[in-house]
Recover the amino acids of this structure.
């Protein structure tokens, strides 16, 4: 009988261990806030999950070569979200400038014309209130 009582005491701890990583994975960065907001407003559909920022970057490149500007914009935003959460906002801001230069070079147009959805997805948002 003692084992049953002990199991009852350990069960809530085990549930916390299962739930905590999922909650901790959602960090608050301006890129995450803007990206999730664009998805919730129906501006874009959530792209498939990726294993890394590198994979998201490659999918962005593929979408640009296919001239799928909506997919390219959402993959570029996904890349920046991942990067901002693992390397910080400063690194993501630098990457955003590089992405915008690549878009301009590829399409020979300003970002607003070449890929207007990119600017819509990543419009300015209020700072994160949690933490």
């Amino acid at each position: 009988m003692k084992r049953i009582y002990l199991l009852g005491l350990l069960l809530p701890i085990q549930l916390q261990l299962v739930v905590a990583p999922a909650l901790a994975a959602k960090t608050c960065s301006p890129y995450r806030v803007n990206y999730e907001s664009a998805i919730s407003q129906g501006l874009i559909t959530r792209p498939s999950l990726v294993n890394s920022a590198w994979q998201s970057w490659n999918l962005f490149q593929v979408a640009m070569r296919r001239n799928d500007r909506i997919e390219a914009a959402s993959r570029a935003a996904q890349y920046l979200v991942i990067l901002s959460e693992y390397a910080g906002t400063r690194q993501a801001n630098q990457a955003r400038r590089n992405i915008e230069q690549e878009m301009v070079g590829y399409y020979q147009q300003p970002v607003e014309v070449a890929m207007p959805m990119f600017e819509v997805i990543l419009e300015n948002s209020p700072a994160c209130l949690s933490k």
In short: Helices lie at 2-25, 30-40, 53-65, 69-87, 89-107, 111-114, 116-121. The first helix runs from residue 2 to 25.
